[in-house]
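Consider this:
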Amino acid sequence: MLRGFNTAGAGMMANQRYQDSLSNNMSNALTPGFKQDRSTFRAFPEMLIQNVESRNIPTENGLQLPFRNNVGTINSGTYLQEDVPLFTQGDIRETDLSTDMAIQNGDLPDENGFLFFEVQNEEGDVRYTRNGNFTVDGEGFLTTNQGHYVLDEDGNPIETGTENFEVQQNGQVTSPFDNALLGIAYHENANDFVKEGDNLFANEGDVAVEDARAVDGVGFQIQQNHLEESNVSPEQVMADMTRAHRMFDMNQQVVKTFDKSMELAANQVGRLQ
């Protein structure tokens, strides 16, 4: 019975975490370039149940030998292992703002390969994003809305000085202050990236991130005055949230049933009349 408590409780916690992940996806459904998370579930390791007893051997001394009878296996519940970003391209939407840019994926040589803008975080480290909702700060540099510098192919901040600049399909930025190529990174396995907040990704894989223009077979276009939308499907997320809520409620009912059984065992079974 106590094992049933643990199994049902584990199911409740897994579905609560799943609900939190789905809520985060839903809250970012309108965030440009956002990549939704997919939750992966795993079961706790199976346990082998054995019935251990002793059997009498019909001998003169009444010999007893231990005997093990395999009853079978039992699973002790499930848990949410991790959230994995889904790297599929969102729809491209026109905005008519010169500071908005979208990467239109072309041919990619690797099944899990993906393209990103290169930006610089507060610590000066290179990070990657698909959110091209840029702006020009007070010093004339092209930045994200969170103040991260947008980098060129050499890793330097791009200074446009004004919002009146042009970006060619190859990423060439032409402005009165600077002519630079946007830093477009390619990684052969986007699953090596982890989210860091502010719609930024960090590379934790063993393979280095490369300049997309230097990789054979990589094709892309930069579309100015456009944004890539989130790849979240609100309808699918709502359906998943409903299913997760029902699973949570089912496990909760199991816990209540075990609780009533424990109450009977503790308060009524064996009571002297």
Summary: The chain has a mean pLDDT of 88. The helical segments are 2-27, 234-267. Residues 2-83+233-267 form one domain.
